[in-house]
Amino acid sequence: MADVHLGDGIRLRTTIVQQKTARPVPFELTETTREALAAWLKLRGLRAGDWLFLSRSRPGEHLTTRQYGRLVDEWVALIGLDPAGYGTHSLRRTKVALIYRRTGNLRTCQLLLGHTKLESTVRYSASRQTTRWLCPSRLTFEEDRSGLLQAAAPSSLPSHK
After folding, report:
1. Where are the beta strands (DSSP E) in the chain?
2. Can you tell me the distance from the alpha carbon of 31 to that of 20, in angstroms, rounded to the nearest whole number?
3. Which of 33, 147, 152, 153 has the most CB atoms in a 10 Å sphere around its CB?
4. Where are the alpha helices (H) located in 20-87, listed in sequence order?
5. pLDDT confidence of residue 125
6. What is the pTM of this model?
7. How do strand 9-10 and strand 5-6 relate by DSSP bridges?
8. Read out DSSP for 16-31?
9. Exposed (0-12), middle (13-18) or buried (19+): which is 70, by Cβ within 10 Å?
10. How many Cα atoms within 13 Å fall on the side-chain side of residue 111?
């Protein structure tokens, strides 16, 4: 719980360690997320050393990846979609694709995913339509005033902003 809770409030930023690579990945918690976490902490009465999301089957332990996957399946079914078409990985891809479409900033997506190579982020975050014009041979990068890399697609291609 200390990853998201600081004193009497919720952190603006936190870091997780990716299970696959064991690398730290920093990210921001949106205002909506912070409000939901504050309500959750109040409801559960959690303390500093507690897990944020507890296991259903192992008292005092954290929610496992498999349990989280099952919850996602339940949530997808609750909104009337087929769980076979959605999962934790597709949600991760969708979030990154939405961030890219809103900002056009591949570096932000790269940091969020914990990728070391920008090319991996391009392949990972692009939808099928976007992949056609985000192929590395046609993609150029420009550094903005803050030092972040921005994708610069040829002007004849559709904008995703």
Report:
1. 5-6, 9-10, 13-17, 24-28, 140-143, 149-152
2. 28
3. 153
4. 31-44, 65-78
5. 63
6. 0.59
7. antiparallel
8. EE-TTT--EEEEEPPH
9. middle
10. 11
Residue at 28: amino acid letter: E
Q: What 8-state DSSP symbol labels residue 12?
A: S
The least confident of 15-24, 69-78, 146-155 is 146-155
Q: Which amino acid is at 121?
A: T
86 neighbors 132 (Cβ within 8 angstroms)? no
Cα–Cα distance list, 78 to 65, 68, 88 (Å): 20, 15, 16
How many alpha carbons lie under 13 Å from residue 50 in its C-beta half-sphere?
13
| Mean pLDDT (the chain, rounded) | 75
User: Count of alpha carbons within 13 Å of 1, Cβ hemisphere only?
Assistant: 23
Beta pairing partners, 25: 16
- Side-chain-side CA neighbours of 58 within 13 Å: the count stands at 8
Asked if residues 9 and 41 have their Cβ atoms less than 8 Å apart, the reply is no
Question: Residue 87, Cβ neighbours under 10 Å: how many?
Answer: 14
Check: CB of residue 145 under 8 Å from CB of residue 131: no
Tens-digit pLDDT profile for residues 34-78: 999 888 888 888 777 788 888 888 888 888 889 989 998 998 899
